Amino acid sequence: MFKKIFNRLLTLLFPVECLGCKKAETYFCGDCLKKISAKGRPAFGGKNEIKPFEHPLTYLNGIMSAADYHEPMVQSAIHYLKFRFIQELAGPLAKILADFWQNYNYNNVETHNYASLPTDNPIIVPVPLNKKRLLERGFNQAELIAKIFAGHFDYPLMTNAVIKHRHTRHQVGLSKKERLTNVKGAFKVENVEKISAKGGPALGWKNQVIILIDDVVTTGSTLEEIARVLKEAGAKEVWGLTVAKD
Hints:
By secondary structure, the chain is an alpha/beta fold. About 35% of the residues lie in helices and about 15% in strands.
């Protein structure tokens, strides 16, 4: 009840208008959505590694992001979603991610850098929130985006594959070392024996390809820690895919 009243007040204070051109009744008009640059910022482990991060990837097979977090519309959309609780923004953010993914996987953009991308029905796993933050926000923004993204490609989705069982400080403002320490041991894999595959029988973790979905990545510390527990549970590959790279 309180959240409904709060959202109503937010609507009165901040009328629905395009984050780019201020057109009324939409947060992202079609024209502005098309203008967002989705060049991507990949990072791969191994000898061909591209390094947008301050440290090499140890457990992740790679990280890709669809847009630059400093693109004003993208930054505003993520901020409004997470801190003003405007869940409708998950739709256009997921579309940015889906368009980017389709561009790399199906149009073979710069194929020489992306030959090892997973294309055969990977399992989509959103980065989880701990219970305290989930109660505060009322939803997990990564899960909202992941559901739309997975539905677009008909990929199997696991929202309870990994849980965050320890509360951590916000990563914003922390150093690289503090970020690594902050998330160490914060995640664990649920249902280690089996996971449910959409439209098919239960599959074991062994030899599965996982794509972790989140809104923003900065150093990759959170994605790396989740990849660690998934690899230890038997996952074959773990990739990070985010809307934006800070």
